[in-house]
Sequence to fold (245 residues):
Amino acid sequence: MNNNIMVSKSRQFTGWLIHVFTASGAFLGLLSLLAIYQHQYRTTFWFMIIATLIDAVDGVFARMVKIKEAVPNINGELLDNIVDFLNYTIVPAFFLLVTDILPVEWRMLCVMAITFSSAYQFSQVDAKTHDHFFKGFPSYWNIALFYLFFWQMSPWANMTILMGLAILSFIPIKYVYPSRLEYLTHNGSLRFMMLLATILWGLTVAGLLWIYPQTNPTLIMVSMGYLILYVGISLYRTWVPLISL
Fold:
């Protein structure tokens, strides 16, 4: 990057605001840990949802302002990874440690697998591929935890699912990066539809949390449908990469 690029004061200020916005996710992570400590699990998930929403849009804002030029002395990618590791890995891992979602005798081992596999996933040089996909399971432990909490399955079933996801962190499947869809398809309408599907999924998750402990079959169907779509598209693009025009 050319260090001699002239950047307006307003653009610099906007860049700093975006970094503050990203960093606020770390505070939400701390609030999530406090809510877990206080056994306010529904509140914990609300904090997780807000933190995920921040993570979903801060990169878009950063690219709009060309933040590397606006605030060159701050590494936004490093900041984002620090916040994400807290919210996507540490908070869910702590939740799993202090609740009965996992078998007591295997709880520590499972949480260790989660933290170690996440450390590997986050530290890979190509954790995000050149065509803007995640390589390996992208440490969506907060999302996995949400579904396990609401499904109310047996601790052994939960552990099997989580250990399977930990193993997938080491398998180079490309997972869709929901806010970077340039290499998903050349068709702009399809990219827009994928974005709308992601937003709809987020609304259904919030809806399920809002009505908890009740449930709604339609919300469940839409939510699970998106997960199937996400995994299916990810597998397809792993085996059939998009050819540049």
